[in-house]
Known about the structure:
The protein is α+β, with helices and mostly antiparallel strands. Helix content is 62%, strand content 11%. The chain folds into 4 domains: 6-219, Up-down Bundle (Rhopdopsin 7-helix transmembrane proteins), CATH 1.20.1070; 226-299, no CATH class; 304-463, GAF domain (Beta-Lactamase, 2-Layer Sandwich); 539-698, Heat Shock Protein 90. Strand 1 (342-347) and strand 2 (353-359) form a beta hairpin. Helix 1 runs antiparallel to helix 2 (38-55) and helix 10 (227-256) packs across helix 12.
Amino acid sequence: xxxxxxxxxxxxxxxxxxxxxxxxxxxxxxxxxxxxxxxxxxxxxxxxxxxxxxxxxxxxxxxxxxxxxxxxxxxxxxxxxxxxxxxxxxxxxxxxxxxxxxxxxxxxxxxxxxxxxxxxxxxxxxxxxxxxxxxxxxxxxxxxxxxxxxxxxxxxxxxxxxxxxxxxxxxxxxxxxxxxxxxxxxxxxxxxxxxxxxxxxxxxxxxxxxxxxxxxxxxxxxxxxxxxxxxxxxxxxxxxxxxxxxxxxxxxxxxxxxxxxxxxxxxxxxxxxxxxxxxxxxxxxxxxxxxxxxxxxxxxxxxxxxxxxxxxxxxxxxxxxxxxxxxxxxxxxxxxxxxxxxxxxxxxxxxxxxxxxxxxxxxxxxxxxxxxxxxxxxxxxxxxxxxxxxxxxxxxxxxxxxxxxxxxxxxxxxxxxxxxxxxxxxxxxxxxxxxxxxxxxxxxxxxxxxxxxxxxxxxxxxxxxxxxxxxxxxxxxxxxxxxxxxxxxxxxxxxxxxxxxxxxxxxxxxxxxxxxxxxxxxxxxxxxxxxxxxxxxxxxxxxxxxxxxxxxxxxxxxxxxxxxxxxxxxxxxxxxxxxxxxxxxxxxxxxxxxxxxxxxxxxxxxxxxxxxxxxxxxxxxxxxxxxxxxxxxxxxxxxxxxxxxxxxxxxxxxxxxxxxxxxxxxxxxxxxxxxxxxxxxxxxxxxxxxxxxxxxxxxxxxx
Length: 703
């Protein structure tokens, strides 16, 4: 490497010493902004300044230079530990303290070995081994310190990161520099002189980076460690320790020398690699690591925010997957405890439970009656989460044994039972499979599983309610169709009854017999049309429309109803509209029949036909009892509400829906004691053609 001029090296170290001391003096009155870490940071800056001065004479004072360098590392390690106290993690994350102590021990061990080494008469291979060992110790400290800094920042809350980003960046800069510095030294077997000359820039940059953090105002900070990041960091630390151990043992074997040593070295590397390939990807090992970290690093076993988000994602992903809700329910509960599978039992009509879904557990044989009604009622009443392992061993939950089916107890992989209770009603029971690394459930597991079970029960109850609502709507539709059919049959029956009554009086008259045949033919046609329409019967559903001559239709209706009551027809203008002839006849027949029923004397019911702009208008007027404004507004067109004794309350509703389906409308005017007027307006043939052209154009544009 190219050596830098000594003058430049001295200048860098002098500036670093001056800057570190100045920043320490500036931070001291503001040290409270770093919390309990303020004092250690000031001390570390001062020690860094002392090391920069001592480093200028390191060649003459070898032991002093090493002691100052180690003191700097120890001071910054202590400051790193104190920075965890900003949001209380120095107390809640118990492994931090032992890890910091271990790093300090390695640093002191390196200092002791480095201090004794010059006094030992070593040369050649022995000196190189000691140098490699010293560099390896430095690497261990650098790697461990970087892991600490990583967890310091990543595991902090959002508000704490604003304060920690500057000291964490400064510490990361120092340890990354040392990592590269001593890696080169370890690989080359010598100190890189150029990097050593530039080493003074590090305390200078660290001092500058600490200023913005001290300038921030203090604030209340909360602990918010990330479990996933902690797990990944710990895994990285385990892998790093494994690699360091491999390198150390391999170097020790190489130091022995000889062919046998090289064979042992090769055998060790191969064996260690095989062990790593077998155990590091192990699910059981990962589960053990996760449980261990959660137990020792966090106050609570679960990250409730993350668990809730995962739970809702699993339940709500129906749009992305064809997985049924029952299977997703088992998956959501299993994820909480890392169970690899599970079952869902749901209530039967008899009160027991039966299998409804499996998730990753196809091998378990479940009886047709998975749980009898008495056992199911216990879980519905108590809502207990059952730890089957504890129950089998007799450690706890002895009372629940009488209510757990025998097949569950005998199923070795069955681990826990989670009842799904909604308003004291059992909507299901989840049977969880034992995870790879089984543990005893504790109060936190019980609380979270019970809450998740109640939430899941509400989802299942909502699904049951939706299915019941769909079924009720289907029955309602069926009942409504039957009501419409009964209404139409009632009208036909009334006409036939009237015809039979009049036949007793006028059967000998040829004119009556002619009208009777017409009436019977019309009734038969209506019954056939009703049967044809029954399969598609729905309010507002009509057949294909066609031009209808209203004058002809109204005259036919007048002739039909004139037999039972006087009907007058006034045609002011002949009009043709686009409509379904059968549906329109049904509407007008209903209006005429109602008008006749409302008129008790022989006063005529009047029908009028004329044109109103783009519509053909039909009026049906009677002089009956009339209706109140309140009844017209709130009850006239409401299904199953009728003012007539024995009426179905269907006719007016059906008439309005049919007219609406033909792009028309019905208007009503009524006065109590004066009578009523119903107006039916339907679009003319030309206007209907314009409507159809516009709809075809819209359909083509959408395609």
